[in-house]
Amino acid sequence: MIRKIFTLLSILFTALSLNAQTETNDTIMTASTAGELRVRTDNSGIALTVRNIDGKGENFYYTTTSSNPVVNSETNVTEFKHIKDIKIVEIAGRKIMIEFENESSDANTLYFDIPDHENREVKSYTGQKYREFGINLSNQGKSQWNLISTGLGLGWLTPTDSAPDMNTSMGRSMEWSWLMVLGVSWDCGPHSISAGIGLDWRNYTMKNSRYFYKEDDGSIGFRSFEEGVTKGKSRILVFGLQVPMLYNFKFGKGRKFGLTAGPVLNFNTGGNIKTQYEYGGSKYKITTGKIHQTPVTVDLLAACTWEGIGVYARYAPMKVLRSRSGLSFNSFSTGIILLF
């Protein structure tokens, strides 16, 4: 009887031990194939990089770092190419186990002790590249939420459907834009949807001997520079906040190509006219505010990129200035954009 009780307790203890071990082991990544495995270790932490997961061009990044890093500690880097059946497991928060087969189908198992496992920070991210400007908010399978900053753009502007004819210079009319100073993106495979808040400045510059002038009644018209004026130029500036809502699709080998499109809501918080010229050996600059810019407009944006660098086109179907200004025009711009 005593032997039976002892045997039963042994079985129960073993089951509980196995269950506890299973609960404390966390599988953080698996893949059938990978182009490269890179392991970087030092006395402060471990950094793992798995590239080209399952041949889809996505990479896996994982770091565990001590909250009290060791300065000038020795660093070791190990790399393996063209591997398969990779599995990365965190054991009880104390070790990292990596199982995989190399090019010769030889099985490998690596163990790494996690430094300062009781006081550490852990980060992981799956995507094409490590985002210096992105913070992973959640990661559930292929679906990810990220905090991002993206869309630095420099472009050239031209008014469309202007009445009267503005005759501005597209080569001198510039647009500076930070599409999303801060935004959130939802990524799922090659597709992503993002929204955020950014900044935009637009300069419409006159290219001939005329300049913009605000009349006493608040309307905006054109006047000619006086005889003897040199280096005369005049521009209308409109600036404000923008809220883009964009869809992005990545394709091609390694998903290096991207197409982005969507509306951009603009809150045009300010605008002015600035005219500069030289006369009689002196320089003059005149700035006039309250130009009656349309307070809220919607633009249409499209971009084509390669590894985040590309060109964009942006059309404003709504009037840039309100009707009381007497100067009616839409806007089109195109230029270079960085979508991180």
Please give a quick description of this structure:
The protein has one helix and 19 strands. With 340 residues, it is mainly β. A hairpin with a 2-residue loop joins strand 10 (174-188) and strand 11.
Number of helices in the DSSP assignment = 1
The geometry reads as elongated
Per DSSP, what share of the residues sits in E-state strands of 2 or more residues?
Answer: over 45%
Strand order of the largest sheet: 9-10-11-14-15-17-18-19
Distance between the termini: 70 Å
Could you tell me the mean pLDDT?
Answer: 86
Question: Uncertain runs with pLDDT below 50, 5 residues or more?
Answer: 13-23
Name the structural class: mainly beta
Largest sheet: 8 strands, antiparallel, barrel
Q: Which value, in Å, is the CA radius of gyration?
A: 30 Å
Let me know the number of strands: 19
Estimate the helix proportion, in percent.
Answer: under 10%
SSE string: HEEEEEEEEEEEEEEEEEEE
Map the helices and strands.
Elements: H1 2-24, E1 25-41, E2 45-51, E3 59-66, E4 76-91, E5 95-101, E6 107-113, E7 120-127, E8 135-140, E9 143-163, E10 174-188, E11 191-205, E12 210-214, E13 220-224, E14 230-251, E15 257-279, E16 282-289, E17 296-306, E18 309-316, E19 328-338
Describe the protein's architecture and organization:
There is one protein chain. By secondary structure, the chain is mainly β. It has one helix and 19 strands. It has one helix at 2-24, and strands spanning 25-41, 45-51, 59-66, 76-91, 95-101, 107-113, 120-127, 135-140, 143-163, 174-188, 191-205, 210-214, 220-224, 230-251, 257-279, 282-289, 296-306, 309-316, 328-338. The strands form three sheets. Strands 9-10-11-14-15-17-18-19 form an eight-stranded antiparallel β-barrel. A seven-stranded antiparallel β-sheet has the order 6-5-4-1-2-3-7. Strands 12-13 form a two-stranded antiparallel ribbon. The longest helix has 23 residues, at 2-24.
